[in-house]
Design brief:
The complex is a heterodimer of chains A (751) and B (158). Chain A is an alpha+beta fold and 751 residues long. Chain A contains 20 helices and 30 strands. Chain A has three domains: 183 residues, Aldehyde Oxidoreductase, domain 4 (2-Layer Sandwich), CATH 3.30.365.10; 161 residues, Aldehyde Oxidoreductase, domain 4; 350 residues, Aldehyde Oxidoreductase, domain 4 (2-Layer Sandwich). Chain A has a seven-stranded mixed beta sheet with strand order 11-12-9-19-16-17-18. Chain A has a five-stranded mixed beta sheet with strand order 1-2-3-4-5, with helices on both faces. Chain A has a five-stranded mixed beta sheet with strand order 14-22-21-20-15, with helices on both faces. In chain A, helix 11 links the parallel strand 17 and strand 18. By secondary structure, chain B is α+β, with helices and mostly antiparallel strands. The longest helix of chain B is centred in the C-terminal third of the chain and has 17 residues. Classes of the chains: A alpha+beta (751), B alpha+beta (158). Chains A and B meet through helix 6, helix 8 and helix 19 of A and helix 1, helix 2, helix 3, helix 4 and helix 5 of B. Bound molecules: FE2/S2 (inorganic) cluster (2 copies).
Chain lengths: 751, 158
């Protein structure tokens, strides 16, 4: 596989396809093919009309494509912000255009906190190339050297004569320039940044506050029907028979369509069920309630989450498959009798984005299928729909709406496939509307897990042995039936990638079969691993009689870069090299130190209150959280949270702070309340009354600090979550002496 | 046919009497600023004003409101009784850069306008009570609270 590492930048201003886009002639249009794709993609890009990234119009306005999905992280602001900075564009003249599914954009899959950290350099190169070409155009026009032409704030000026031309005036001339070689292209120095690292307001803000945004649920197409689908409550089950005679009597109901079971792994296939199509959502819902369905539940009817978890809890106390082994753990445990061990559990979790999934599909008369959806992964959605309907990929068009939250749920394309299948069956456009109940009960769940930790301390309270075991159904089970073994990327998510200065380390994992659809939820395996790891360090500190902060520093050892691959474990490091993104103990300590300073770590707190510290590196960023809790009459209140993050070079300070604020609340919901339980293969929860989320009255004060860092950009959307849970349970221990190892906390406290 | 008053305009709608206002707004009138989050009165995404009071439109059958005045996010700034509060709240939302994904925000804004319309300077406890019916999965509570305080100062000064 040939991987290209530089964007291919093309001047396409003169291409005939632009006429079809309604662009006035005289516009300067740069197209690009971003890396992280194959060479083959670059070829298709040449023939593709829409891989335009920047368009500079004669009237000075600039369109910049956002090829990633907006789900609240601010990417529709931060991507254009990077390009506009290198381009020296006036931000008030920038218009953001949402990119459709197109391989030329490289991966559009908006997950893994990857949009900025993987494309930062390339996006800068695109902006800088355009700026260079505008300068070259001006130089040619004035017949002077390009070195005398300065591009600043949307215009190019000649430094000797003082003449200047605006970008709009230069657009037509620039459209005749060749892009510069990327090897000689000069990027801005950090000190020259106008927008990168600054707080720019989200570009969608005006529409959001006026209610004029379009989310997936908001799509309206003439002659569209709305579908509400009753899906088999047990995974792998199907419809035995159904009676829709009462349904058909409901005013507005037009059609009833059965959706069959797709054999094999669950993948992004639609679940088996019966769809009711009506002229409005309420009729569809009412019609669905009147369906009489007899289900063939299949084998997964036997799944009981309580028993399953109990079994995992016992299995992790026995040896598993070794994935990292350093020193001689057996001998170390024999030598050092001062030991601590603990088992931690986290239940299944649902994504529950505020906007339940929704997708709209229609067929054009030429057979092409066009979709509008709140999807994190338009390319994969396009390919999945094409396969399900037996179409070519280029017969499927996927438009990306705003996403009302996603957290990983909307990377799965099942709801787009449902819409396409139903639009085909109905012979008219169909919007599939998931209800909250559908969302909670038919999700791709975060895996239920148990972990065992055992540590031994020597006489100096140095950790001499560290044994950890984890067991949870892997994400691979979604794509491969019967897959039971956890993937490398899951084990590298806060488990086998630990940076500790311990001579004897062993990490083991234990197979776990899947009985529901398993998905990736904001920060993925770091959720349970982060909880267990920071809890266990706290337990060791208590056993050592040391302050948790001091103990963390001792455990991290000297300031150094820790080798990525240790004890036979190959750490994928979120796709980054050790050179670009080493595991650095100094950066861990810096976030801990600052969080402790802000929280007044070590200060006296009133009876019944306590502070808890947790720290975690994930998606190449380091985050420390200290929670301050109060427990009174068994009521647990999180009073304040201090979060310090080192995410390397950041693009939009305000949105990074917002992501951390949100991650505190997200992690708090997991710690305090989130719990999906399964009885007879069926999810027991259904809506926000029994799958509660943090509400305003529970929300703590939050103080976020983003470290000004020279590191390359790390992830932002996810890394705030993993330390939250243990910061709260450690604080509960400090406040009450009660060590909580099984989430959520509302099993023990009122919250 | 039922007649309803939305943002000072009369609309004739041909739906069953038990249809919740939310679906009339979204599917019939194509006013999609009011959002669907739970359908059970649990999340507040669908909050509108009924004679100036915040209500959950997902749980309000259309037959119950034929004599009422409904205000939605699209019209709240033009509604004479609370226009100045609405403008102040939206301005505060911009100042604090409150939204993340934005999905819950029309509901949050409608609840906040009703709160301040009723109580010019709410304290933390009053904000908690008035706003706890509005979930924000993105976790923007800190900024919502600041924005409400900013807006109430603005309204208070006038
Ligand atoms: S949709 Fe009405 S309260 Fe949630
Ligand atoms: S801003 Fe996303 S749910 Fe509130």
């Amino acid at each position: 596989m040939d991987v290209i590492d530089k964007p291919i930048i093309e001047n396409v201003s003169r291409r005939s396809f632009l006429k079809g886009l309604g662009l006035a002639s005289g516009s300067f249009v740069l197209a690009t093919t971003l890396p992280f794709g194959h060479i083959a993609m670059a070829d298709t890009a040449k023939h593709n009309a829409l891989n335009v990234f920047i368009t500079i119009h004669a009237n000075n306005h600039i369109d910049i494509i956002c090829h990633r999905s907006e789900m609240g992280q601010g990417v529709r602001t931060s991507i254009p912000q990077i390009i506009a900075d290198e381009l020296e564009a006036d931000w008030s003249l920038v218009n953001v255009v949402q990119g459709m599914a197109n391989n030329a954009y490289g991966s559009q899959n908006t997950d893994g906190s990857s949009s900025i950290r993987k494309a930062f350099l390339q996006l800068r190169q695109i902006g800088a190339s355009a700026r260079y070409m505008l300068r070259q155009a001006a130089a040619n026009f004035w017949q002077v050297s390009i070195d005398e032409c300065l591009a600043l704030n949307h215009q190019v000026s000649h430094q000797i004569t003082g003449k200047s031309l605006s970008y709009g005036q230069l657009a037509e001339l620039a459209s005749m320039m060749a892009p510069p070689s990327l090897d000689t292209l000069r990027l801005k120095d950090k000190s020259e940044f106008n927008y990168i690292g600054k707080k720019l307001a989200s570009i969608d803000l005006p529409d959001i506050i006026n209610g004029t945004t379009t989310f997936g649920q908001d799509i309206q197409i003439p002659n569209m029907l709305i579908a509400s689908i009753s899906r088999c409550p047990v995974i792998g089950g199907k419809v035995k028979s159904f009676d829709a005679s009462l349904t058909r009597k409901i005013k507005g109901v037009k059609q009833v369509v059965e959706i069959g079971l797709t054999p094999g792994a669950v993948n992004f296939h639609p679940l088996a069920g019966v769809a009711v199509l009506a002229t409005n959502t309420f009729s569809a819902i009412k019609g669905r309630e009147q369906l009489e369905i007899s289900w063939d539940y299949g084998k997964n009817l036997a799944h009981q989450s309580a028993e399953y978890l109990a079994k995992r809890q016992s299995l992790v106390q026995q040896p598993g498959k070794i994935c990292r082994d350093e020193g001689d753990i057996g001998n170390a445990f024999k030598q050092h009798v001062k030991q601590v061990n603990a088992v931690y559990t986290v239940p299944y979790l649902a994504h529950a984005p505020m906007e339940p999934p929704a997708a709209t599909a229609m067929f054009h008369s030429d057979g092409r299928c066009e979709l509008w959806a709140c999807t994190q992964s338009p390319q994969r959605a396009r390919d999945t729909v094409a396969k399900a309907l037996g179409l070519d990929k280029d017969q499927v068009l996927v438009n990306v709406t705003l996403l009302g939250g996603a957290f990983g749920r909307k990377a799965k394309a099942d709801y787009l496939v449902e819409a396409a299948i139903l639009a085909k069956a109905a012979g008219q456009p169909v919007k599939v509307v998931w209800s909250r109940e559908d969302d909670i009960q038919n999700d791709y769940y975060h895996a239920i897990s148990a972990q065992y930790y055992q540590g031994a301390l020597d006489d100096n309270n140095q950790v001499q042995a560290w044994l950890s075991r984890t067991s949870f159904p892997p994400i691979a089970s979604t794509f491969k039936k019967k897959a039971q073994s956890q993937g490398k990327f899951e084990l590298a998510g806060g488990f086998a990638d630990i940076p500790f200065d311990v001579r004897n380390i062993r990490c083991e994992h234990i197979d776990a079969p899947a009985f529901v659809r398993i998905g990736w939820l904001r920060s993925v395996a770091n959720i349970h691993h982060g909880f267990a790891q920071s809890s266990f360090v706290d337990e060791l500190a208590v056993a050592a009689g040391l302050d948790a902060k001091d103990f963390w520093f001792k455990l991290l050892g000297d300031n150094k870069n820790v080798a990525l691959n240790r004890g036979g474990f190959k750490n994928g490091n979120y796709g980054a090299s050790a050179k670009d993104h080493p595991i650095n103990t100094d950066r861990y300590k810096e976030v801990i130190e600052l969080a402790c300073q802000h929280a007044g770590w070590g200060k006296e707190v009133p009876e019944g209150e306590g502070l808890g510290l947790a720290v975690h590196r994930s998606f190449l960023s380091y985050v420390a959280v200290i929670s301050h809790v109060k427990v009174l009459n068994n009521h647990l209140q999180v009073k304040k949270m201090y979060c310090v993050a080192d995410a390397g070079q950041i693009v939009n300070l305000d949105r990074v702070e917002a992501q951390m604020e949100g991650a505190m609340i997200f992690g708090m919901s997991i710690a305090l309340m989130n719990n999906i339980s399964i009885k007879d293969g069926q999810v027991e929860q259904s809506n926000f009354h029994d799958y509660p989320m943090t509400r305003m009255a529970q929300a703590p004060e939050i103080e976020v600090t983003i470290i000004e860092s020279d590191g390359l950009p790390g992830g932002v959307g996810e890394p705030g979550v993993p330390p939250v849970m243990a910061s709260i349970t450690n604080a509960v221990y400090a406040a009450t002496g009660r060590r909580i190892r099984d989430l959520p906390l509302n099993k023990q406290f009122s919250v | 046919m039922l007649t309803i008053d939305i943002n000072d305009q009369q609309h004739q709608v041909d739906v069953e009497a038990d249809t919740p206002l939310l679906w009339v707004l979204r599917d019939v009138l194509h006013m999609t600023g009011t959002k669907f989050g739970c359908g059970k009165g649990l999340c507040g995404a669908c909050t509108v004003h009924l004679n100036g009071k915040p209500v959950r439109s997902c749980s309000l059958p259309i037959s119950a409101i034929t004599t009422a005045k409904i205000t939605t996010i699209e019209g709240v700034e033009n509604n004479l009784s609370n226009a100045s509060t609405a403008i102040a709240v939206k301005q505060a939302w911009i100042t604090e850069n409150v939204p993340q994904c934005g999905y819950c925000q029309s509901g949050q804004i409608m609840s906040a306008i009703a709160l301040i319309g009723n109580n010019k300077s709410p304290n933390d406890e009053e904000i908690n009570i008035a706003m706890s019916g509005n979930l924000c999965r993105c976790g923007t509570y800190k900024r919502i609270k600041s924005a409400i305080k900013t807006a109430s100062n603005d309204v208070g000064e006038k």
